[in-house]
Design goal:
Blueprint lengths: L6 E5 L1 H9 L6 H8 L3 E6 H11 L8 H14 E4 L18 H9 L4 E3 L3 H5 L11 E3 L1 H6 L3
Parallel strand pairs: 1-2, 1-4, 2-3, 4-5
Helix pairs in contact: 1-3, 3-4
């Protein structure tokens, strides 16, 4: 008997921050499931670089050692993808070009879900180029599905 394949998730930077920096109690179930390796997390070097920059923002007041530890902890959980191939299926353009990479990562990882609170990304969930590939949902909605 073989185990069912694990769900593949892509987390945008704000979701990563909510889970590991702010430790949002509303997302405790998601964090616990991730820590238990219930999911495959997919990322790419440019997304990890964005996370590194955000962790260093002055308003978060994170010591450099904690920044490094958080980044390493998250990166160690991720399957790291190469940049998108030239012949990859088309995706809609996200209003915020910085968020386009998360759509690409979800597509290229053949992810089940892209987890975000970003309204522009969430609106793309209904797009004809996204619907057959993966779902875009909030972390709260994903947590609710665990019940």
């Amino acid at each position: 008997m073989t185990d069912a394949p694990r769900t593949t998730l892509v987390l945008d930077t704000n979701t990563v921050m909510a889970l590991w920096v702010f430790e949002d109690p509303a997302l405790a179930k998601l964090r616990a499931r991730i820590e238990a390796d219930d999911f495959v997390l997919a990322s790419r070097s440019d997304a990890l670089e964005e996370l590194r920059r955000v962790l260093a923002y002055r308003q978060f007041a994170l010591e450099p050692g904690r920044q490094h530890a958080l980044l390493e902890h998250y990166a160690a959980r991720c399957a790291l993808l190469a940049p998108a191939p030239a012949d990859a299926p088309a995706l809609p353009e996200c209003r915020d070009s910085d968020d386009q990479k998360f759509l690409e990562i979800a597509r290229d990882a053949q992810a089940d879900q892209l987890v975000t609170r970003d309204k522009a990304l969430l609106r793309l969930n209904r797009h004809r180029q996204v619907r057959p590939l993966f779902e875009i949902l909030t972390p709260e909605r994903l947590c609710a599905s665990f019940d």
